[in-house]
Specification:
The complex is a heterodimer of chains A (239) and B (594). Chain A is an alpha+beta fold and 239 residues long. Chain A contains six helices and ten strands; from the N terminus they run E-E-H-E-E-E-H-H-E-E-H-E-E-E-H-H. Chain A has helices at 20-26, 76-92, 107-114, 150-157, 219-222, 225-238, and strands at residues 3-7, 10-14, 50-53, 56-59, 70-72, 131-132, 138-141, 164-167, 174-177, 204-206. In chain A, helix 1 (20-26) crosses helix 6 (225-238). Chain A starts with a strand and ends with a helix. Helix content of chain A is 24%, strand content 16%. Chain B is 42% helix and 14% strand. The longest helix of chain B has 18 residues, at 489-506. Chain B has 25 helices and 16 strands. Chain B has 594 residues and is of the alpha/beta class. Chain B folds into five domains: 2-58, Arc Repressor Mutant, subunit A; 70-165, Glutaredoxin, CATH 3.40.30.10; 169-382, 3-Layer(aba) Sandwich (Rossmann fold), CATH 3.40.50; 394-464, Ubiquitin-like (UB roll) (Roll); 470-593, NADH-ubiquinone oxidoreductase 51kDa subunit, iron-sulphur binding domain (de novo design (two linked rop proteins), Up-down Bundle), CATH 1.20.1440.230. Chain B has a six-stranded mixed beta sheet with strand order 6-13-12-16-14-15. In chain B, strands 2-3-1-4-5 form a five-stranded mixed beta sheet, with helices on one face. The chains are: A alpha+beta (239), B alpha/beta (594). The A-B interface holds A 42, 44-48, 50, 57, 59, 62, 64, 81, 84-85, 88-89, 91-92, 122-123, 125, 146-147, 162, 164-173, 176-178, 180 and B 35, 39, 48-51, 53-54, 57-60, 322, 339, 344, 346, 481-490, 492-497, 500, 524, 527-530, 564-565. The complex binds flavin mononucleotide, iron/sulfur cluster (SF4) (2 copies) and FE2/S2 (inorganic) cluster. Residues 207-211, 213, 235, 237-240, 324, 326-328, 361-363, 366, 531-533 of chain B line the site of flavin mononucleotide.
Chain lengths: 239, 594
């Protein structure tokens, strides 16, 4: 007999070694997430995927599924908290969606839509952050980085390189690149690297492609992130 | 430089796990970590430069830009403030002619604040190039200024500037014992390892670092792991403001602490141990190395300990200014030469700790108690205390009391008893367990020191009626915002938002909804954060808001909404440029209701 947990009262089967996130995705249950990506070791930092497991808050992307778990995911309380965590990510950086070329394709924006976020709620930090446009094909706009480390992990785990890292402590956290000059052009990144395409926000962009897909025809212009996410991830998770 | 770095790397056998130690030497030598050193280290240690940079930028005691030949840091703990820290640092800044947070033009001296240095019973305190300075006053500052201006090397400075006192005022069960070197180990081998573990179990000893996990259970879990390479780690990071008992234990009872670690190693069959000593306790480093050497000579460390065929040794690793490294998994990351970021759990350190091997992490006092229990048996310890909290607790008491210092009490002792003993009068409240603990008001002094009532890792700060609660809370909240490791969103952003929100209320810009918003934010940080730091960071607000709601309310303006954005404040630059300060150059954004 296969093992199972419940999520919001529904039985969800799991295999030994799966996280709650993996089991949920395989069963077609969406748990909001930003720093999680099925192809990489989970990081557990954004905390958007926090669920309640037998009364205790756990990150679904890192916490192993275990027999007897009663998981709460889609509750008003958790949605409220997730909305606030998303608002925190917005006020921490400089996210001017209308003027961002990632708009409509951005997961941060899409999660905010999904959670029905209507304002920033918290005071904006307006940090001073740089743009690194030194590279011919790839650019970094640090204003939009949410420190999910997906680019770090993609570069290490997929591209066999080590282009990115997160440095600093607390609010001074920032993305750095592996070059003595500190500039992207002096790293060994290429536009074909997975690290150049994985950013959930508009912090890492491929140059000269900005408006090839017009606004209005982009991923999240017509679909909610839960639907997109499940369509994309379901098969791989479920295998 | 090339040779210096080369030699350094060689001394450390090119191990990237030693990165913190290596960087410490570079920082001491150059007063910063030069870019060229990073490049060279990256080659030598075969570690990406980004990893080295990230470590440098994580720890407060490393810098990418040059700092003074004399780097002075003044402790920013609430207790230092109560002893006049603010006016002292201003005086120091004027005398030395350097602004706080800056390096003097000639590069000779730099001055800054630092989190609590663990000298709360002998403050105001500070550090010069990592060495503890105590009892700072105008006279000492004058002297220090002269020494710096004459550029006298630190080893020629008068000893009394660096004198650190134990101040053991009330010893109890543990502190009154002086055990002979090796006697706990002898007793253990004589009784048997399994039998000693069961004595430990019977003693009911729970971890003294704060969380209170049963020590015997932790050791047992670790010893049952299939992986046979195992480690013992002693947590001497002691960063909780107001805590300084581990400093005293390591100064005067180090043999017993090391004996406890060795005992643990015998039981869990570990070959290697680490003492993770906070960087602020650099003054203990040489002394502790000497004691380890003494123990090797005496056959209590090294190969074939007490001729029992047991091999075990202990290495001391210094931290570099990061409170989060007291959290056990962050500590392990730091031991591995990385940023101190708490790991995801499970796996717990007992199954995958240092280098992913089974690891026991315990507090200094826990190891010391374990050694005593090995000699005297479990019942000796379990006879004292309460049902769920056996034995005694060593407290570091500071703040408004006549006799700050180290006190040892059986669990179950009332707060009032402690206050009477330390000579506290006209008490407003007590902060138990440091900023991450609980603020209790003066009608609660019948409550007890115990895991089932008021748990504490040792911090006990007394405040008298002349103190302002909101100032205390503000100091604590700024501490957490400064020390958040930044890994998870709720704590990284949340603690800074909390700081802003509290500042807004304290500065009198808060309006009706602002206390509710404050509490809501606290709850979010508490429930959604990744580790104990974030989960307790809002406690200063939550525990005082619960007791003194009117205090927060009274700070609010009588308008329904105050924007977070200070319109008039934003015009300051414009006023300065226009050299204007008349009424027309000011804007009120909301009219106050009368
Ligand atoms: C932010 C934070 C700081 C901590 N600091 C310390 C510390 O300085 N010393 C300590 O022994 N434990 C500290 N702890 C607790 C440790 O994580 C761990 O529980 C403890 O070292 C286990 O030892 P024990 O069982 O002997 O108490 C801290 C925990 C957190 C979350
Ligand atoms: S640049 Fe993008 S992918 Fe990389 S850490 Fe920042 S947000 Fe994540
Ligand atoms: S709670 Fe704070 S200290 Fe702990 S992991 Fe999150 S950011 Fe770091
Ligand atoms: S998706 Fe789980 S913490 Fe980010």
């Amino acid at each position: 007999m296969s093992k199972s947990i419940t999520i919001d009262g529904n039985t969800v089967p799991f295999e030994e070694g799966q996280t709650i996130m993996e089991a949920a995705t395989a069963a077609g249950v969406y748990i909001p997430h930003l720093c999680h990506h099925l192809e990489f070791a989970p990081h557990g930092s954004c905390k958007l995927c926090n669920v309640k497991v037998n009364g205790r808050v756990c990150s679904a992307c890192t916490f192993p599924a275990m027999e007897g778990q009663e998981v709460l995911n889609n509750t008003q309380e958790l949605t409220d908290d997730r909305q606030k965590i998303t608002q925190m990510l917005f006020v921490e950086g400089n996210h001017f969606c209308p003027s961002c070329e990632k708009t409509g394709n951005c997961q941060l924006q899409a999660v905010a839509y999904h959670l029905n976020m209507l304002d920033d709620h918290y005071p904006l930090f307006f940090p001073t952050r740089k743009v690194d446009a030194s590279h011919a094909e790839v650019m970094i706009d640090h204003n939009r980085c949410i420190f999910c480390t997906l680019c770090v992990r993609a570069s290490q785990q997929k591209d066999g390189k080590d282009v990115f890292a997160i440095s600093g402590r607390g609010l001074k956290k920032h993305l750095i690149v592996n070059a003595q000059s500190g500039l992207l052009k002096d790293t060994d990144i290429e536009a074909t690297d997975q690290a150049a395409h994985i950013c959930p926000t508009g912090a890492i962009l491929i140059k000269h492609t900005a408006y090839q897909v017009p606004i209005g025809e982009r991923i999240y212009d017509h679909k909610q992130i839960d639907q997109v996410s499940l369509e994309k991830e379901h098969d791989q998770h479920g295998k | 430089m090339t040779k210096f770095i080369q030699d350094l790397a060689e001394t450390h056998r090119y191990q990237s796990t030693h990165l913190l130690d290596i960087l410490r030497s570079i920082q001491t030598h150059y007063h910063y970590i030069p870019e060229a050193a990073i490049e060279q280290l990256a080659e030598l240690l075969k570690t990406p430069r980004t990893q080295i940079i990230s470590v440098v930028e994580f720890y407060s005691f490393f810098h990418l830009s040059p700092h003074g030949e004399y780097e002075i840091l003044i402790s920013d703990s609430i207790t230092d403030h109560m002893l006049g820290k603010k006016s002292l640092i201003d005086y120091l800044s004027k005398k030395l002619n350097v602004a706080v947070g800056e390096v003097r033009q000639d590069g000779v001296v730099s001055l800054d604040n630092t989190s609590c240095t663990g000298m709360c019973d002998q403050g105001p305190a500070g550090l010069v190039n990592g060495h503890a300075l105590t009892h700072l006053d105008h006279q000492r500052i004058d002297l220090i200024t002269d020494l710096i201006n004459q550029q006298k090397p630190l080893n020629e400075w008068p000893d009394n500037l660096f004198l650190v006192e134990d101040n053991i005022i009330k010893p109890g069960l543990l502190l009154n014992q002086s055990i002979n070197q090796g006697s706990a180990l002898q007793a253990t081998f004589k009784r048997g390892l399994k039998e000693t573990l069961s004595e430990l179990e019977q003693s009911g000893l729970r971890g003294r670092g704060g969380a209170g996990f049963k020590t015997a259970t932790k050791w047992k879990f670790c010893s049952e792991e299939p992986e046979t390479l195992r480690y013992v780690v002693c947590n001497a990071d002691e960063g909780e403001p107001g805590t300084f008992k581990d400093r005293v234990l390591l100064n005067t009872y180090a043999h017993q602490v090391f004996e406890g670690m060795t005992l643990c190693a015998a039981i869990i069959e570990a070959q290697q141990g680490f003492l993770y000593l906070r960087g602020e306790y650099l003054h203990l480093y040489e002394k502790l190395q000497g004691i380890l050497e003494e123990r090797r000579q005496a056959g209590l460390l090294g190969n074939n300990i007490l001729k029992q065929g047991m091999n075990f040794d202990i290495e001391i690793c210094l931290g570099a200014g990061a409170y989060i490294c007291g959290e056990e998994s962050a500590l392990i990351e730091s031991l591995e030469g990385k940023m101190g970021i708490p790991r995801n759990r499970p796996p717990y350190p007992v199954t995958q700790g240092y280098l992913d091997k089974p690891t026991v992490v315990n507090n200094v006092e826990t190891f010391m108690a374990a050694a005593s229990i090995a000699i005297n048996g479990g019942a000796w310890f379990a006879n004292i205390g309460t049902e769920k909290s056996k034995g005694t607790k060593i407290l570091s008491i500071c703040g408004d009391c006549a006799r700050p210092g180290i006190y040892e009490y059986p669990f179950g002792t009332s707060i009032q008893t402690v206050l009477d003993d330390c000579g506290a009068s006209d008490v407003l409240g007590v902060q138990i367990g440091g900023p991450s603990g609980t603020f209790i008001a003066n009608h609660e002094f019948k409550r007890q020191l115990a895991f089932e009532d008021l748990a504490t890792g040792g911090s006990f700060i007394v405040f008298d009626n002349s103190r302002n609660i909101l100032e205390i809370v503000n100091n604590f909240i700024h501490f957490f915002a400064h020390e958040s490791c930044g890994f998870c969103t709720p704590c990284r952003v949340g603690t800074s938002l909390l700081k802003k929100q509290l500042d807004k209320i304290i500065e009198g810009h808060g309006s009706a909804g602002d206390v509710v918003a404050l509490e809501e934010l606290c709850q979010l940080i508490k429930t959604q954060s990744h580790c104990g730091l974030g989960q307790t960071a809002a406690n200063p607000v939550l525990t005082t808001l619960e007791r003194y709601p009117e205090l927060y309310q009274s700070q609010l303006k009588k308008i329904s909404y105050e924007p977070g954005f200070d319109l008039d404040g934003a015009l300051e630059t414009a006023r300065r440029l226009a050299k204007r300060n008349d009424a027309g150059a000011h804007l009120a954004q909301v009219e106050e209701e009368s």
